Amino acid sequence: MAPVPLEGHQAPVAGGQEARGGSSVSLSLLIDFMVQRTYHELSVLAELLPRKTDVERKVEIYNFSARTRQLYVRLLALVKWASGASKVEKSTMIMQFLDKQSMLLVDTADMLTRIARDTLTHARLPSFHIPAAVEVLTTGTYSRLPAIIREKIVPPDPITPSERRQTLLRLNQVIQHRLVTSDIRPQMRNLKIEAGRVTFVVDREFEVCLTVMGEGENVPWRLLSAKILVADKDTGEGRPLVHPLQTQYLHDVLQSRLVDEKQPLYEVYDVLHFFCLALRLEVLYCQTMRLCRDRLDDHIRIDDYKPGKSLSISYWRHLPEQPQHHFTIHTDPHDPAKSLVVTHLPSLAQKDSEIVDKALLMEQLSIERLLVQTIYLRTKSRLAELKTELETMLKDVDCQLQGSPAILSVPVVQPCLRAELLLITVDTHSGSFLAHVPQYSSPILPEIQNSLNYDHTRLPTLLQELRFWITQRRCEKTLQHLPATAHERLPVMHAADHPIAKLSRHKMFVRLHRHQRVILVVELKEKPESPCEVSCSFYLVMVKPSSIEDSPEDETIETEFPKTYLREKLEHFQTNWTYSQVQHVCELDSFVSMHGPCTAVDESCGQKRKMSDGPAAKRAKHPAYFIPELAHVVAMCDERLPFVAIAAEFSRRGIAHQGIQVEAGATAVVLRVVQLPTKVKPILKRLLSLSLRVQGKGTKAWLAEFIFHGAPLQSLHPKEQGLRRPVYFQYEMVPEEIAGRTVDALLRDWEQICNLYEIVYDLTEFLKHDKYGLSGMIAVKSYSYSRLVLSYGADRSATMTVFWSPDHKAFRLIFSSNPGTPNAHAAVKEQLQAHLNRNRSLAQVLVLLCETYEPLVSLGKLPGLPQLGVHQSKAPQVATQGFTLLPQSPTQIRVVYQGVYCLEVRIRGGGLVSVRDGSYSHLDRTHVLSDFTPTQGLKAFLSKYVDESAVFLRRRSQSEDDNPPSPVVAMENVSNPGSASTPGQSENQATSSPSVPSPFLGGIRPQSPATRAADAASSNVLRFHPPHTPPSNPHTPASPHPAMGHGFSPASFSLASPPPAPPIVNPSPTVLPSPSPILNSPNPLPSPLLPQSSPQQPIGQSPAAANFPQPSLADSSPFPSSQSMASSPAPSNWPSSPSVPRPSPGAARAPGHSPAGGFTHSPDPAKLTPHLSRILPQRSWAGAVPTLLTHEALDLLCTPAPLLQTAQGPVSTLIEPSPLERFLGSLYLRRQLQRFIQSEECMQSIPNPEPGVVHLKTDTLLCRVFQNTTHLQSLHLKLSPLNEHDETSWSPDEFQILEKFFETKVVCPPFKPQALLAFARMLTVPYNMLKDFVQIVRLELLPQLGLQQGLRWSVQWPLRNPPSGTHLIPTGVASFLICRNKILFFLCITRQGVQYPPGVEPPSMILPLVYDLHTNITQLAQKQDQNQVHPPAFAAANLQMKRFADYHANANLDQCSVFPALRDLMANLVLPNEPPPMMAPMAAAQQVVGSPAMQSPMAQMHHSPLPPNAMGPGPQHQGYPPQQQQGSPMINPHGMMPQ
Known about the structure:
By secondary structure, this protein is an alpha+beta fold.
């Protein structure tokens, strides 16, 4: 609040300078001044610029713009300053207040000083008047004042109120006596005597007030006031019409007349009355002039004006054949005392004249009101005359004259709406007639209006034309919601004597939107008995497109004329219209069109009449504008013409039908087809009827209804249980000229039904017999004759939809499953479709579905989500798909991993599949395809999953894989030796040809010696001799090859074979794999995957199987049957055997053991096999030989499962990678490691003879990376010092830390090579720095050590740059870089030891650290960007690192500063915005040491679809604490993000 000066006011200041300096102006007032100034300048420019030249105008405009812009720029600056000037203003006010107070004090002191020094020095008191003072103080008065003061100033005492009242009453009596004894005008009878005066009031003229000054007879009247009551609010802007000087002059004249005249009251009235009449005439004259000038122009005119006497005005001056109309306002010549009167010419009736005279007697005098009243009466008179004439002209027509202004309503047509009445009125300005129809703007109205004003003889003809024109508009209104358009004219070509030329000229052409070649002509005629009513006749005209040059008699005109849109202007015939030639004309009976076969009629009175046509009050009423006959006829044509076209098309194609019929109840029109052409005769027995109907209201379409009797298949759908099976198809409504398209679509759908019924009918034959077992394999969910939906699978969760595609002329399949689970057969849909279209056997497809369902479900478990950072050559941001399934046939699928490795899976019968390396060619196993890389060790890996009990018929020595025969040699079929492929026949030929049997279709069922002997005797093809050595298990001990023992140590990579298992003569059901449902039936249906006898030798084949069409699904292997059926190892006793159906790998291992057993560093193959083993040499093409697996083994390979298991079950319950993914991922990382060794300078490869083992060395270490020989699903690292004397500098515990980190964080899912590259670079750093890195890794693997040491933060090593990290390097690349003398690496620290509220995660951040080898300084890496703003947490960490570097600048340079700096940061870093913990760090440290790790930014690097903790805990080594039940101190190998 501003300070207030003392005493509530401000002392005056000399000169007023301070007042001017401290004064203020309101901002709104300032803006008003500026706006007014700008407006003033604009006004001046607008007045002055037109007088100047162009250059001067531009200069003035520019100067004005510059001045105004500068002014408003200052205003803008002032407004911006004012927004923040409150403090300055307050301070200024305080300073001003203090200055004023100081000035007041100074002025007061100066004034007192001046008085004391100057004034009071000579001051003296005067002599006091003691007597006067005593008198005043004692008596309160002063009696010695002069008497003249009382006489001149003090007035005399007034009379009393009673005396005043008596005087006024007496004066009233005197005035009343004078009026009684005097003569007054009758107009002055309105008087009032009150308060000694009399007031005369003459309405609309004047008001005068008189009195007398005494009681004598000769005392004249005294005029007190005179008021003129004549007023006009529009004249003089509301000011009085009489000037005060005029009023004073009248006052003087009247007063003199009152004194001099004998009849003074007569004189008063005459003078004032004459003055008021003259004033009223003057007002009317002014109003008339203003009307002429503002609005009426020359429509009225003042003929004569005599002031004070008369005013003559004329109107309707240009009215043809009519006398001039005018009226005169004047005074009464017989009695001047009367008011103004009006005289009309031509004269008005007495009653109308009285109405007009009332306009002058209104309170408000208005010439416009007088004109309106006069013209209204004239208009009504003229329209009354016209009404009489029209009623005589039109019969039975009642015209209405009403309204103001007056309007004559003439009903032209009957019945007639109010909006269709012909309204006739008179123009108030000119007096001419005006004609109008409210709803329409007819072109005939100007002619009618002209005839009303000039020539009435043409009125009957024009009214007739208007009647037909309104009826035409009614036709358009009736058709606005129907699919038709009405035209007055169309370019129709016909002969001169054609019947259409005989129609009247009043007609309408109706174009049906859906029928371009049909025109409905509506002829309009007047009814003879009632001319105002119009009747309609209908003609249906068939036309065809033609040009204007064609002759109407020519019948060879091209019918396929280009379609164009019709115009509605006759002058565009030559350019824009398509001419139509009339072919046929048919007159329609309105009664027949509106009465169908189901309409009830009454034949009373000798004529047909609808039963509903009762009294007029009960009839259905339609609006007057709606023509029901026209609507019914158009609807009938639109409904039946498509049926006519379809019926004609059926007849042209020879399809029998019953014609157009009306359904029962008159609900719709239907066209029934009697017979359809087909090659599938059985379906005709089930087809009951085919009906065509039209469906829809707005957009119509054909609806075809097929009615069948039952179905050959019994489905589970609830709507398909009855005997009546309707099938509906919908088709687009097309024009009649292309109605064949609808018939074609109907025949295509009929073809769809027939083709599907054909294969369903064949399938029914197999489902009827239980010996085929198909009924137990599938369930029919729905069969609607157009689609067949089958369900299959173990719980019938998979569905297949079969339908015939008319567009592709082939069957199509749609596979679906339960929501959330894809159908496994969706990958081989194209192959199954090709098989079905080639063989047209649905039963074979169903057998394929059931045989391939389990393998495809297993393959579908392989993850196929794209991952980032997989390929080193590509950018890390490029995604690579994990597993890709490439089906080659229904039973052959290629599985591609990361675009590098390829496995070929072939599904065989009897629950077996064969797996081979797809990177090798089928014809030459030494040839590798250019797109893929051979999968090393695939044969050994797959051999661990072979179930000998399922493939005992395929025992062959694995040593034969080393010497494969030529692929062109004739191949022997084990199950059917009598049939073999032609030498040199390729896989595709063997697969595609159904007549040539293949040796690779050999089954797995055992055959008796008699059967084999019979087959051998009947064979007449060239065969190789069997091997001299008896068949043996490839995994049984055998005499070693001479070359096998060279260059291999017991610890090298080998294929260890267990002792041979005893031969299984009669395998038990628990040993054999679960058979297919087909094999469980008494006479199983021949499977496409099982071997079949050749057509020439149907040995042991049932008649049903012989007649059943069999596909040729041959094995793709080009090698002889002896090698293609070479069995994998028998069940062995090596640890963690995954053989089926025995327990999964690791089930017999002791709890807590790793793949390496209980050893410290890495698995030792020499210590893993307690039995005898032999060493088989690895061949690079060994994987090209197919390996037979059971479905259970394939599912075990593809199902995600933990790597380690205990006797109680799996250690981890989360989703894990599958064994196949772990195997291929390990191979991929080992291959990438070899590339890194070649590309990195600090790593050097060491040659070694061990296959699958990588040796490399750095400046300080020797590294050995090898694959786990037990399960081949993981990589391991063995470290040793480079020199023997360095062994003392490295402890075994440090090597264990790095090896454990390698196993759990580097070579783990999702198998990213960037993480491996970062770890390899870490091993190449100097010795002292690597020691610090080991300490960091130890803190990550053992987080409880940090809590024991009191560290606030835990550390994790992200081997790849996460998305939340800094943008120093791209996201996803290796987060360990070495550049000259600096090393860049990333660490993630997370707050630990503090319990936060629920939902609040502990803070964590990614730290980019740079270590300088020369200066031994560790600091945070930052971009060289001055404008970059770092987060508070990063700034705090950077400040802590700088403090440590400054404090330890002179420390021991031999000790690396990486780990000390990090430990100092982890112990002392406190974030500025850290949320308050729920528990103190010391209290949290006293809890369980191994609390689970919280979420960190490292989890953002999890590009794999598998979640963390998917692999379970890693192997334990010596020296590590044992696992606990709660919170293991050993970090879960996959608890953090897999690197």
